[in-house]
Amino acid sequence: NTPEHPQLRIPLDLVWIPANGGTARLIAAAHGSRYPHFANDAERIYTTDGHALYSIRYDGSDQRTHLKLSGRFDARNNSQPVAEQLIVSPDGRQALALINKQVWRIALPQADPNLSIDVHARNPSAIRLTDVGADYLGWSQGGKFITWAVGSTVYRVATERSDSVASRAMGMRESAPEVESFAVNVRVPRAIPTGTVVLRGASVMPMSAELGARVLENTDIVIAGNRIVGIGTRGSIEVPSGARIIDLSGQFVLPGFIDTHAHWAFPSRELQTPDNWSLRANLAYGVTAGLDVQSNLGENFVYQDMVDTGQTLGTRAFMVGPGVFGINRFKTFETDFQSYQETLAYLRRYQQHYRAHNLKAYLVGNRQQRQWIVLAAQELGLMPTTEGFGDPLLAITHALDGMHGNEHAMLDSALYADIIQTFARTQTSYTPTLNITHYGPSGFEYFFSREDLRNDSKLERFYPRDRLRELTGRRSAWAHADEFNFRAMAEQAAKMQRAGGLVGVGSHGELQGLGYHWELQMMEMGGMRPAEILQAATRDGARIIGVEQDLGSLEVGKLADLVVLRSNPLQAIGNARAIVYVMQNGVLYDGDTLGVVAQ
């Protein structure tokens, strides 16, 4: 609100520092806009709300509309696609747009600035340059080149030659001879300890397919490096000289817990924190591995790499990357597949560029589009999981069509044999996420209103103080115990598992670490037996996220991820909270502090 323009009410939230070291100037950015930037017109700032391209002067005056975008109308959401990014070329004559995660080059209309361009209508003013798509895009060398990046690969094409790329067949644009690609590979060795550790004399629950929760009394586990090399009765296995022996007499050992529906607390895309607190908190509570089924951003894979290379301490952080969402359901994650080849080309980003094995496909469209996802995932070796958004019929269709997994509880009432057998025989996994549901009060509110979390010393150690205070402050969602319906949902999960189905444990990130144990306790309150819950939390969890060859059970050759408890979880699943030690990747940590005990 300046004296020259008293009518303007535009927040001044950006600072421009000229490259020549001149005076810094505040830049006005219209409310709701994003990605402001400059072109050759040095007195104007270009910005977009996703539907149109605008520009304003530094003082916020003289707003102009340069372009309006449109596309296929989505009747489900009463909307049209938006541009996640829209960047003007240095000469101001063209723009790059990221629409439905694909890169488009658009000629800006000079005569009619309000012209609406439908990017899907074979408009010569808008050409598509990608099939796999992009995470970032931009102009380089003064507009001579168009660049974009997906995962760890950077692409570049000369602007004057980009028209020929657009004419390529579906699935072939990135491989056009005009397009250069540069793989940005950073090679760092994985963290593998060099010592030998013997866990002596514990009661061991292997959770293998053969032994399950059967307790092996007075048992030794020998770990060399990061793998189990021996399991047997105390003293029956030869121990190498120099091995560190930890006496666990009277304690209980089982595989590390696996969270099949995690949501870790990552900051914005502008910043990755090397020592992420949420990954540490989960590890401290015995969750040695998990799958974040919607990690939003491709760059969050860096956390998985940092754990694997020992640069940060935390749970093994498997991720799906950006979810595959239906058009405009969530505005920064849009897809609108029109053919199987288009679907296959897009999913290649997960296999080739993110190097992910899991995929979250959420409300991607009609049944044909969902089946394209399943078929393309099968061709590329991906494991797609999805959810019915509170629609049980949609969830059932997911199983019939071959989705690998289905997230969240289907119903809070009885599931009968036809549905139970559908999931059991298709082996579509089922993670009910009792902490949060579509039906009635969420389970986590039951515990928030009944546990003294502010005085939990372990939780305070790993949780940011301000976040913990916010979570444990006055809450308005208190309800009587009989108003919560998680018991009925857990009962259906038990029926599914007993019929041979795959049931997982997913905490949904409502309270990092401890929330996983709430999920275990709700399963028990719904009638699941502790041995069944442990199966879901270990062996079946590993199978659900595709890591059963290394994790989920205590067997020779597998990675040494395990939990040591002072109480027997088979007597009550709440005993799984009595953690003495956590071992991940062959390193034994104190359960209260994550201080290193042996490696």
Question: Which of globular, elongated, flat, extended, rod-shaped describes the shape?
Answer: globular
- Average pLDDT value? 85
The oligomeric state of the chains shown is single chain
Spatial gap, N to C terminus? 62 Å
Strand content: 25-35%
Structural class: alpha/beta
Rg, Å, rounded: 27 Å
Largest sheet: 9 strands, mixed
- Given as residue ranges, the uncertain stretches (5+ residues, pLDDT < 50) are 1-36, 328-333
Q: What fraction, in percent, of the residue positions are helical?
A: 10-25%
Please provide the count of β strands.
32
Task: Enumerate how many helices there are, as a single number.
Answer: 14
How would you describe the overall organization of this protein?
Helices cover 22% and strands 27% of the residues. It is an alpha/beta fold and 599 residues long. Strands 16, 17, 18, 19, 20, 29, 30, 31 and 32 form a 9-stranded mixed sheet that branches. A 5-stranded mixed sheet has the order 3-4-5-6-10, with no helix packed on it. A 5-stranded parallel sheet has the order 24-25-26-27-28, with helices on one face. A hairpin with a 2-residue loop joins strand 30 (579-584) and strand 31 (587-590). Helix 4 (340-353) crosses helix 5, helix 7 (417-426) packs across helix 11 and helix 13 (530-537) runs parallel beside helix 14 (539-545). The relative contact order is 0.10.
What labels would you give this structure?
disordered N terminus, 22% helix, 599 residues, five-stranded mixed β-sheet, alpha/beta
